[in-house]
Design a protein that fits this description.
The protein is α+β, with helices and mostly antiparallel strands. The protein has a domain of about 120 residues. The protein is built from 14 helices and ten strands. Helix 9 packs across helix 13. The longest helix has about 70 residues. The protein starts with a helix and ends with a helix.
């Protein structure tokens, strides 16, 4: 009894010691596995890999590299406006992810974290509206716009997808540790034992389609009863699979990786195209607001003029020089002018809110645009008006031709054309050379061709050669009494297997093959459609340029004529000329207001047509800050010569 008790406590002590050793081992492994690579390190590593891929693909796609990051500073203008102008917001999420309350089990203590801009675009002043120039608006849009950020994230995610495809052809290591305690009481004697196993393996897929895998396992089996026998096991194995027909060949095996690489290029191209159209949208929104400002100013001036006209009509009526009907006409026009002024003011506010929304800025933020940009834009119109005045003064003393003289309609003069009114064929050629979305459409045709090749490969028979080798032996509690195992090549097991899957049933593959040709036709049609759309857009923008230029000249003349008409009518009315009616003055003032608004619109239309043409030709370059570099037709013409 004493001997059996001693054995019992000896076995129990051994078990307790083993459990302590296992606990220490597990704790150590847990520390190593979790401490050496934290979630933060995984995220940083993913950022590094994606940014390296993007830089690599930027070089290939654009011939240059630009700084690229999806991390947004916490002090972007949107957040600063919300906080510094005391604007209402619904929750902390409105200010950014770094302001969110950390939830339970959050993996990173200091991420997302608040970061500051190295070069803030604007410095806000207390109790003053933010003043925005067009160049500042372009940069703010690049930093604040939700859509802009989404396109950047699309590029980043495509880079991560490419890294995942590349991982398919890397060496993949795996490791596993197991510990087993077993007690068997079903027999005549109780058998207790411990089995510790460790295995490490490596696998790799080659671009030829060959798949390799190796593994090494070590076992230590100990009996805690029956004399405490122990045995060491060691086993190694290696396998190889070589496809010989279907699924073989570098072009087939590598196809997912090839497509992932091209998808990153496409994402970069699409982002570049988006930057062009987004910059033009910002310019269009900005100039639209400035146009509304000009209309408010014109409506205000017209309202003031009609107030004066209404007062004058009352004075003249009291003197018996105007009828009450004419006085009522003046009052009605004054009321209409007030309505126009209020309507123009509210339209300006709506346009400004829409522009703030385009930049992803709070609609209720206090923002004003630099009116100097509009003055600079209207400078050509002022020059045209000055030229018209000089021309009329020169023609003042000359006799006009006879009334019945032949009428000759003059087409727009080529010498008045602006720098972007280039030859149509040249403009289309530039668009075909520079439109990145056209490059993508052309590349997608090639993608569809490759898909046909891959689908055709799947129709064939599958012939695969397998090979394997096994050395040594494993040990368990049941074999703890055996001799230790050894790796001996002369005692190994070697096998080879050749399998042939005959292509009797290929309905799925047959249909996929037929659909691949349909997809190819669709890709070709998409390319042809885009090509025609580019031609249409370029031709229309060239026509818009000519029309806007002529409209600018016509409206400039209309302003001059309307100003002369208002002045002469006022003089005739003051002089009491009987043929002059109050209605004539009111109509002249309405014509002046219309001409003033139209000349501004024509100047903006011409400038927007220039920018849109550059975008349609793909020659408007946008840097990482959102600023543009416009195309120079003169420099390009000089380079061609």
């Amino acid at each position: 009894m004493l001997e059996e008790g001693f054995v019992f406590w000896k076995c129990k002590a051994a078990v307790l010691l083993w459990w302590a050793a296992c606990a220490a081992t597990v704790a150590g492994l847990t520390f190593i596995l979790t401490g050496c690579r934290s979630p933060s390190e995984y995220r940083v590593n993913a950022d590094k890999v994606a940014e390296e891929i993007i830089g690599e693909m930027q070089k290939e796609a654009l011939g240059k590299t630009e700084q690229f990051s999806i991390e947004r500073p916490s002090d972007i203008l949107r957040r600063r406006l919300l906080t510094e102008q005391n604007l209402p917001y619904s929750s902390e999420a409105s200010l950014g992810t770094d302001r969110l309350k950390t939830i339970e089990h959050w993996p990173e203590e200091n991420y997302p974290k608040a970061t500051q801009l190295a070069d803030p675009i604007l410095l806000l002043e207390a109790d003053k509206p933010v003043q925005l120039s067009l160049m500042e608006a372009l940069q703010i849009g690049a930093r604040n716009s939700f859509e802009y950020q989404t396109h950047k994230e699309d590029v980043f995610e495509s880079a991560l997808d490419l890294d995942l495809e590349r991982n398919e052809f890397r060496k993949i290591f795996a490791g596993q540790v197991e510990s087993l305690v077993s007690t068997n009481t079903s027999g005549d004697r109780t058998v207790s034992g411990v089995e510790n196993s460790a295995a490490v393996g490596m696998s790799r897929r080659l671009e030829s389609g060959v798949e390799l895998s190796t593994a090494l396992a070590i076992d230590l089996a100990n009996l805690l009863t029956m004399g405490g026998a122990s045995s060491l096991g060691i086993a190694g194995d290696a396998t190889i699979a070589i496809p010989l027909l279907r699924g073989s060949g570098r072009h087939i095996v590598r196809e997912p990786l090839t497509q992932a690489e091209r998808d990153v290029l496409y994402a970069i191209y699409e982002f570049e195209r988006f930057k062009q159209t987004f910059a033009v949208d910002i310019a269009n929104g900005y100039l639209e607001v400035l146009s509304q400002i000009d209309q408010v100013r014109n409506a205000e001036q017209n309202y003031r003029s009609l107030i004066v006209s209404a007062r004058r009509s009352r004075s003249l009526a009291e003197a018996g020089r105007l009828t009450q009907i004419q006085v009522d006409q003046a009052v009605q026009n004054e009321l209409r002018a007030r309505n126009r002024w209020i309507s123009a003011t509210e339209s300006y506010k709506n346009s400004l809110d829409s522009f703030k929304n385009l930049l992803a800025l709070p609609p209720d933020a206090e923002i004003e645009l630099e009116r100097g940009d509009l003055e600079q834009l209207i400078t050509p119109a002022s020059k045209i008006i000055a030229d018209i005045v000089a021309e009329e003064q020169a023609e003042a003393g000359k006799e006009t031709g006879p009334v019945d003289a032949a009428i000759e309609l003059l087409a727009p003069r080529a010498e008045d054309a602006g720098p972007f009114e280039i030859d149509e064929s040249l403009a289309i050629e530039l668009a075909f050379e520079n439109r990145v979305d056209l490059w993508v459409a052309q590349a997608e045709v090639y993608d569809a061709q490759r898909a046909v090749v891959v689908a055709a490969d799947a129709l064939g028979a599958e012939l695969t050669l397998f090979g394997s080798s096994k050395l040594g032996g494993r040990r368990s509690i049941d074999s703890a009494g055996d001799d230790d195992a050894r790796l001996r090549p002369d005692k190994g097991i070697y096998t080879a297997l050749l399998t042939l899957d005959l292509p009797f049933e290929r309905t799925v593959e047959r249909n996929a093959y037929r659909k691949s040709f349909i997809s190819l036709e669709q890709a070709v049609r998409d390319l042809q459609t885009l090509e025609d759309e580019i031609k249409l857009a370029v031709r229309r923008k060239l026509r818009d340029l000519l029309e806007s230029r002529e409209s600018l000249q016509i409206q400039a003349k209309s302003v001059l004529v309307a100003e002369k008409r208002v002045k002469s009518t006022e003089l005739f009315l003051e002089a009491g000329k009987p043929q002059t009616q109050m209605r004539d003055l009111l109509e002249a003032q309405d014509a002046l207001l219309t001409a003033q608004n139209r000349v501004t619109s024509a100047a903006i239309d011409y400038r927007m047509a220039e920018l849109q043409l550059q975008s349609d030709m793909g020659v408007l370059k946008i840097d990482e800050r959102g600023l543009w570099q416009e195309y120079s037709p003169e420099e390009a013409e000089h380079a061609r010569r």
